[in-house]
Structure formats: structure tokens, C-alpha cells
Amino acid sequence: MALFSFRRDNAPAATGVTPEVEAFLKGFSMEVMPRTAEKVEDFRAILPKGTRVYIAHIEGTPIEDMVATAKRISAEGFPVMPHFPARIIKDRATLADWIARYQGEAGVKQALLLGGGVNTPAGEFDSSMQLIETGLFDGFERLHVAGHPEGNKDIDKDGGDAIVMQALKWKQDFANRTDAKMAIATQFCFEAGPVIDWVNRINAAGVKIPVHIGVAGPAKLQTMIKFAIACGVGPSLRVLQKRAMDVTKLLLPYEPNEFITELAVHKAQNPDFGIESVHFFPLGGIKTNATWATEHGGASGVPANQA
């Protein structure tokens, strides 16, 4: 398989790529699952060197499959960040076993800690904070936590964000006393305005952990709407619903151009704005998303401040 020809930092940007978007996409990350990763023959052929690859752990996926995927992608030269969903982990011994396997077999040094999308915990853990409190992640170089710009009704059942905000403040306190680099990796959204408001609001509340904004990669509109509903995407779902009403656009794939451009311009105009990076959910396929990202300027790999 021929390798993708990546643009070097001093080469001209791709046609139509603005400096703002190119800077914003620098250091993007990608999320995969064992079954989707199997479809990629060689990640070196589609992703820039150094791209962080998250490995989502869906309930029911054997830990053996998770570790094998991490080992394979790590061997291809990419930093891997497996998910640790609290509510599917039975107990401390299970958590310790998972960590030992990831570290021993795949050299994992990074982790995304989250509550997980199941209603009833499998055991003693219910939140990422409880995972952190075990001390088992001490020594990890990076610990990311989940963020929800449009709220999370699994946590704040009244539709507000009081509990989520309290949890973010707790994580900020932890970030202040840990040597691990931290970031908030968010659910994907489709409207820039609410995201900007949310980032500014958590920053004003004292939460300064850098945000890695979730972005849905290119996909068929019907696919996008299905995943958005299943993942609990909030008000910004109306962007897709409005598009679905336009017959001329119904059969065209959704691409995140407008969403990313608005955020990129805002970041360029406000350098201290809290979004540090883009995290892609490749709903239309890993290769499709990787190609879109690199063609739009995201071929520079992970910046030094995120290594």
C-alpha cells in the first residue's frame, strides 16, 4: 500500500485551507474501536506521525481485544490512549489487571477516564473520579477526562450542568497536584456558538484544563443523525435536522467544515481560548476521516505541548 504523502510544515497549505484552520487542526487525535481498527491495514498510511489514537472500550468488548489493538497501533508508532469506562469495570483488581496488561504489552502511558455510557455500574466504580482516587494511574504521562458542552442527562437529569461542573472543578484540583498532563475530551457537537460559550463558562468557573473538542468526521447524513441521537447530542442536533430538510443536501455527506472554521477563527482571534486540540470521531470511517483531516491542513502531528 502506498503511503499518504503528508505535507511538511514549511510546504504550502492545501488549496482552500486557511492558516486558522491549519493551526487549529494541528495535533488532532482520532478515536477507533478494535473492530474499526481491523479495517485499517496500516495506520502509518493514513495518519500523520505522532497522531494520538484513542481506543474506545464499548461494554462487552473483551479486554484482550482492547490490548491487542493498543499493541498493534503502538507498534506502528502512534501514542495510544485507551478508554477506561468506570461503570463497566468490576473492581479495583480488574482495573489493576487492565492497566498492567496495557502497560506490559502495549507500553501505554496515556488514558481517557470516563463514567461510561451504561446505566447500572458493573461493580464499585461509577465515575472517573473514583478511578483517579485508586492511585492506580499514578505515573501515567497523560490523563484525559470526558466533557459535555451540551450537558449530560445521565449525570444532570434535570438538564442542567451543576453536577458536571462540580466534577470538572474536582478534576481541576487534581490537575493542579498531579504531574500528569490533562485535557478534557468532549462529546462531538455541531454548533460552534454553544461550544464557545461552554468553554468560556468553565474557564470563568476556574476550570483551566485544556479542551480537546469532539468533532464528528465526514459521514452520510443519515449515519450522522443516528449516531448523534444514540450518543445524546443536545441542541446542536438541529444543525443536522435542518440539513435533512433540504432535499438538495439530503444525499450529500456531512463534513465539519463550518464548525471547525468558526472555532478556528475564534481561536485565532482569542489565543487564550481554552480549546487546545481537535478530537475526531470517525463516524463515516477512519480512512475517510483521516483523509479529510490531512487534506484540510491537519498533517503536522502532535504539537510539543501535547506530547
How is this structure best described in words?
The structure is a single chain. The chain has 307 residues and is an alpha/beta fold. The chain has a single domain, classed as TIM Barrel (Alpha-Beta Barrel), CATH 3.20.20. It has helices at 19-25, 34-37, 63-75, 92-106, 128-133, 162-177, 192-204, 221-230, 237-244, 247-250, 257-269, 286-295, and strands spanning 29-32, 53-55, 80-85, 110-114, 142-147, 181-189, 211-216, 275-281. Strand 1 (29-32), helix 2 and strand 2 form a beta-alpha-beta unit.
When the domains are counted, the total is 1
The shape is globular
By CATH, the topology is TIM Barrel
Q: What's the helix count?
A: 12
CATH class identity: Alpha Beta
Question: How far is the N terminus from the C terminus?
Answer: 28 Å
Number of strands: 8
Largest sheet: 8 strands, parallel, barrel
The share of residues in helices is 25-40%
SSE succession: HEHEHEHEHEHEHEHHHHEH
SS strand fraction: 5-15%
Organism: Gemmobacter lutimaris
Protein name: Methylenetetrahydrofolate reductase
GO molecular function: oxidoreductase activity
Keywords: Oxidoreductase
Give me some keywords for this one.
12 helices, eight-stranded parallel β-barrel, 8 strands, oxidoreductase activity, FAD-linked_oxidoreductase-like, Methylenetetrahydrofolate reductase, TIM Barrel, globular, oxidoreductase, 307 residues, single chain, alpha/beta
Write a short abstract of this structure:
It is built from twelve helices and eight strands. The protein has helices spanning 19-25, 34-37, 63-75, 92-106, 128-133, 162-177, 192-204, 221-230, 237-244, 247-250, 257-269, 286-295, and strands at residues 29-32, 53-55, 80-85, 110-114, 142-147, 181-189, 211-216, 275-281.
